[in-house]
Amino acid sequence: MSKVVGIGGCGRNNVKRMLPSLPSGFDLYTLDQIDDVPYRTPTLQLCRYTMGATEPTVVGTDQAAYEHLLKDDAPLYIVAGLGGGTGTNVSTILAKEAHARGIPVYCLVTTPFAFEGKRNAIAKKALIGLAQYATAILTFSNDLLEKVLGSAVKLETAFSTHGEWVMQALLAVHGLYGQDGNPPTIAG
Questions:
Q1: How high is the pLDDT of residue 186?
Q2: Is residue 64 part of a domain?
Q3: Please, which residues bridge with residue 136 across strands?
Q4: For residue 48, is it within any domain?
Q5: CATH code at 63?
Q6: How far is CA 30 from CA 47, 59, 100, 118, 176, in A?
């Protein structure tokens, strides 16, 4: 079964939006900070979401969270926003660890608006890092979302549309690469 992990705020929100409509064949997780104590490395918590459950199940924290996600060779779909902290940093670490174990990694990442300046530079650097480890990367631009929907769109509508785009892209990539994460072989 393929694993979808939403990392950081953007990834977590996208996974929660997918839950009611994603078909079977996926395990849904979020990996996010659970504390924000100054001058201390934040604790990461992995939660698993299941259809019909009212609350996610806590699977593990920190290294145990990584180990749980990487314990088999199931393809890993990373959903994250780049340009901030958790999504940017943790996605690259997880992709690197999965790649080292031979696990196919597909990244569906969102980049900041152009006006966010420094966050764009951080996102570009993160994309370069992810490219070393990912089988494929699909990038969703907040600027493109605004261009398509218009600047007067309500925030919840924008988030919902973005979530739908991410889910449809995930399904397309999964359809192309299959449950084992390998592209189809065409005999000729």
A1: 52
A2: yes
A3: 106
A4: yes
A5: 3.40.50.1440
A6: 5, 10, 21, 26, 24
pLDDT of amino acid 138:
94
- What is the total count of domains within the chain? 1
Inter-CA distances, 167 with 56, 145, 156, 170, Å: 19, 15, 16, 5
Provide the residue range defining the domain that includes 140: 2-177
CB 134 within 8 A of CB 163: no
Q: What pLDDT score was predicted for residue 181? A: 60
d(CA 109, CA 123): 9
pLDDT means over runs of 10, the chain (188 residues): 93 90 88 76 87 84 93 94 92 96 95 90 95 94 88 84 91 80 57
Other Cβ atoms within 10 Å of 162 Cβ, number: 20
Question: Domain for residue 188, yes or no?
Answer: no
On the CB side of 55, CA atoms within 13 Å amount to 3
Q: What is the pLDDT of residues 37-89, one digit of tens each?
A: 666 677 899 999 987 777 899 999 999 999 999 999 899 999 999 998 899 99
Predicted pLDDT of residue 179: 64
Tally Cβ neighbours within 10 Å of residue 127: 18
Specify the residue for token string 């079977």: 24
Give the sign of the dihedral formed by CA 55, CA 8, CA 108, CA 71: negative
**Cα atoms found within 13 Å of the Cα of residue 32, Cβ hemisphere only:** 22
Question: Residue 115: which residues within 8 A CB-CB, separation 6 or more?
Answer: none
